[in-house]
Structure formats: structure tokens, C-alpha cells
Automatic annotation (TrEMBL):
Organism: Listeria rocourtiae
InterPro entries: Aminotrans_V_dom (IPR000192), Aminotrans_V_PyrdxlP_BS (IPR020578), Cysteine_dSase (IPR016454), PyrdxlP-dep_Trfase (IPR015424), PyrdxlP-dep_Trfase_major (IPR015421), PyrdxlP-dep_Trfase_small (IPR015422)
Family the UniProt entry places it in: Belongs to the class-V pyridoxal-phosphate-dependent aminotransferase family. NifS/IscS subfamily.
One Pfam match: Aminotran_5
Enzyme Commission code: 2.8.1.7
Gene Ontology MF terms: cysteine desulfurase activity; iron-sulfur cluster binding; metal ion binding
Keywords: Iron, Iron-sulfur, Metal-binding, Pyridoxal phosphate, Transferase
Keyword Cytoplasm among record annotations: no
Cofactor names: pyridoxal 5'-phosphate
Protein name: cysteine desulfurase
Top EC class for this record: transferase
Length: 381
């Protein structure tokens, strides 16, 4: 008997039992401060170094290029604001996309108040930017390009490598928010041509409040935290060692399991699409079914209010999301769907995000898909 089904892994994901074990071991054994010179400090330092090696290795980086952060929001903010301030003598232009996470978009809005000029690249119907638009936006004044790897709402994957190639001989630094894509795809920072890359642990079955920012050696950044000399003076503050050890374990597991996940999640998507098609309900997939992030499926049900759909699904024990902020019973349309459809299009109020992860099964997908069909049929009556 299948009970409740959690399909909101892109919001946050359940912690892996082995991650819990790694964190418990760290809490118990590594209580020292990694900066202390006595035996307890040395034990903690060893654990920190080992975790850093795992994390760096997962993206083909040098260990010195990893800065531990409190998660994706911090990584994005440091990358954007830090590189804008450090390079403002070279120009004041920044390029990003209209569908970034608020951690990037709001950092850009802040930079606009500080005299920077930001280009927000539009996306096509599949949620992908055009390289021609990118080429047209790039100027000799551009100091930073921030383009997300995979979108958290519709799963669209951007041409990161192609942008990296274009910027090879350009002064602009290149940052990618890889929060949703990390742990799904093989990732090598040199191949991608990025200078900075943001990751957070809680999307890959690690703990919340911990992440890392890859910063290529030699990158000019202003870091906001001042204090102790942790992280080579780039992020002051006693390290969150249990979090870091938990993240390293989550990274290790994600490297081992990503191939299987890609294949499972492809099948899961198909269960939904087939069940919807067989039932005869009206639906459209937002974004590309095959080429997007494996764990994200965004679907529109024409004529169905997303608020009612979410409420009814919750009552049926199915947790999915709309990707929109819900205030006082009204849904603020998601900026990603607005970028896709336009603000006046009904699609921005008729779409849900289903996202897969640890613990899900094929049977759960069958149950969730048929519950969605039932609710949609009821709401369409
Ligand atoms: C694409 C993307 N970037 C950044 C973040 C923020 O990460 P965190 O919650 O670790 O601050 C998220 C989390 O929702 C995300 O999906």
C-alpha cells in the first residue's frame, strides 16, 4: 500500500541515511576546531581536508578552488557581488538570464542599485537562451556572465560549454548556478570553461545550510566575510564540519548513483506522460521532456487552477509544487513561466512541477499520476 508521495525534491530532498551516519561520526569524533594545533584540531582538519578533496574531485577542481559556504544563496551572492565589486574598474555590465533563481536575480537587482547595468537574456519556448542573443549582449564592458546550468522550475539546461568557449578570450568572469544540475550530470569545470560554480548540499540528499563555491585559481573576487583565516581568508568563520562531512558523503553517493537516477527518472517522467495521455486529459509539458534535468517535470493542465490542483493533491497525499509564491490564496505567477509564456498567458497559472529523488519508486509514480488525473478530471467538470 503506497502512502504519501513526496515529489518536491527540487525544493529540498530527504537526507540520505549514510549522510546522517557521516554527520553523526563528525559530531562525535571531530569536535575539535580545524584551526587548533592540538590532536583534536588535527583530527578535525584531516576530516575537513578529506571532505574538500571529495568535493573538488567531483567537478575536476583543485582543492584550493573550493570555498565552503552556507549553501546556494551564499554561493550565488558571493559569485555575483564579489566579482562585480572586484572588477568594476574594467566595466559595469553583467549578463544573466530572466529565469535564474532569486539568489542570482535579486543579487543582480542589488547590483543595479550600485551602478551596474544588467542584461537579462530571454528564453525560448523550451526555456533556453539563444547564443545569438548572448553574442549580441556581450560587450567590452561586460565583466560578469551568470547563467544557470539547469533551471529549478522547468528543468531547462543551458549551453554552458558554448558560453564558456565564447568567453575564453574575454575579460568577463563566468559563473554558473549548478545547484539543480550537480549530482545529475558529469561536470568538469575546465571543460565547461567556468570561473565560478555554485552547489548546495540539500538538493542532493545532504544537509541544508551547507554548500560550496568553486572559484578558479587566480579569479579576482571581493569576499564579504571578514574575520578568521578560514577557507584561505575567503570565508571567515569556524567551519560547519558536520555539514561539510555530510555534504562530502552526499557528493560521493551522488557520483555513484547519478547514472541510475538518470535512467529511473526518465522512466518516471514517462509514467506521468503516458498516464496523462491515456486518460485523455488536456496537458502540455513545459520545457523539454528528454533534454532537460532528469529530476524535473513541469506540466500544464489547461483550464485547471494551480492553487486548486495543489490543494487537492496535498489532500490526496501528493507533494508537488507550483514554483510560485502563494500569498493570501492567490498565486504570484512564477517569473520562469512568465519568461516562457508571457505574463498574460493562462499557462503561468496552470502548471505544476513534479520533481523526483531518493526513495521514490515506479509504483509511487503510477499512484501519483493517477491521482493527478482524478483531480484534474474533477476540477474540469
Ligand atoms: C537553482 C537554485 N539556485 C540557488 C538555490 C538556493 O540554494 P539554497 O537553498 O542552498 O540557498 C536554489 C534552491 O532552491 C536553486 O534551486
Amino acid at each position: 500500500m503506497i502512502g504519501r508521495v513526496y515529489l518536491d525534491h527540487a525544493a529540498t530532498s530527504p537526507i540520505h541515511p549514510e549522510v546522517v551516519q557521516a554527520m553523526l561520526a563528525s559530531f562525535t569524533n571531530n569536535y575539535g576546531n580545524p584551526s587548533s594545533i592540538h590532536y583534536a584540531g588535527r583530527d578535525a582538519r584531516k576530516a575537513l581536508d578529506e571532505a574538500r578533496a571529495i568535493v573538488a574531485g567531483s567537478i575536476g577542481a583543485d582543492e584550493r578552488e573550493v570555498v565552503f559556504t552556507s549553501g546556494g544563496t551564499e554561493g550565488d551572492n558571493v559569485a555575483l557581488i564579489g566579482s562585480a565589486y572586484a572588477n568594476r574598474d574594467r566595466g559595469r555590465h553583467i549578463i544573466t538570464t530572466a529565469i535564474e533563481h532569486p539568489a542570482v536575480l535579486e543579487a543582480c537587482r542589488f547590483l543595479e542599485t550600485q551602478g551596474f547595468d544588467v542584461t537579462y537574456l530571454p528564453v525560448d519556448k523550451d526555456g533556453i537562451i539563444s547564443l545569438a542573443d548572448f553574442d549580441a549582449a556581450l560587450t567590452s564592458e561586460t565583466i560578469l556572465v551568470s547563467v544557470m546550468y539547469g533551471n529549478n522550475e522547468i528543468g531547462s539546461v543551458q549551453p554552458i560549454r558554448a558560453i564558456g568557449e565564447r568567453l575564453e578570450k574575454h575579460q568577463a568572469l563566468f559563473h554558473t548556478d549548478a545547484v539543480q544540475a550537480f549530482g545529475m550530470f558529469d561536470m568538469d569545470v575546465a571543460e565547461l570553461g567556468v570561473d565560478m560554480l555554485t552547489v548546495t548540499a540539500h538538493k542532493i540528499n545532504g544537509p541544508r545550510g551547507i554548500g560550496f563555491l568553486y572559484v578558479k585559481n587566480g579569479t579576482n573576487l571581493v569576499y564579504p566575510f571578514h574575520g578568521g583565516e578560514q577557507e584561505r581568508k575567503r570565508r571567515a568563520g569556524t567551519e560547519n564540519l558536520p555539514g561539510i562531512c555530510g555534504m562530502a558523503e552526499a557528493v560521493r553517493i551522488s557520483l555513484e548513483s547519478r547514472k541510475q537516477k538518470r535512467s529511473d527518472f526518465k522512466d518516471y517522467k514517462q509514467v506521468f506522460v503516458d498516464t496523462f495521455a491515456e486518460s485523455g486529459i488536456l496537458f502540455e509539458v513545459n520545457g523539454l521532456l528528454e533534454k532537460g534535468l532528469p529530476q524535473v517535470l513541469n506540466v500544464r493542465f489547461p483550464g485547471v487552477s494551480v492553487e486548486q490542483l495543489l490543494m487537492n493533491l496535498d489532500m490526496a497525499g501528493i507533494a508537488v509544487s507550483s514554483g510560485s509564491a502563494c500569498t493570501a490564496g492567490t498565486v504570484d505567477p512564477s517569473h520562469v513561466l512568465v519568461a516562457l509564456f508571457g505574463a498574460d498567458h493562462a499557462g503561468v497559472r496552470e502548471s505544476i512541477r513534479i520533481s523526483f529523488g531518493l526513495g521514490n519508486s515506479y509504483e509511487e509514480m503510477e499512484k501519483a499520476a493517477s491521482e493527478i488525473v482524478k483531480v484534474v478530471q474533477r476540477l474540469c467538470k
